[in-house]
Amino acid sequence: MTITVVGLGLIGGSMALSLKENNFADKIIGVDNNALHTEKALILGLVDVISTLDEAISQSDIIIMATPVDTLISLLPKVLDVISPNHVVIEVGSTKKPVIDAVKSHPNRQNFVATHPMAGTEFSGPDAAIRNLFDHKNCVLCDVEDSKPELVELIKKMYEEGLKMRVTYLDSTAHDIHTAYISHISHICSFALASTVLAKEKDEESIFNLASSGFESTVRLAKSNPETWIPIFRQNQENIIDVLDEYITTLLKFKGLMISDSYDKFKDYLTQANDIKRILNK
Question: What is the pTM of this model?
Answer without folding.
Answer: 0.89
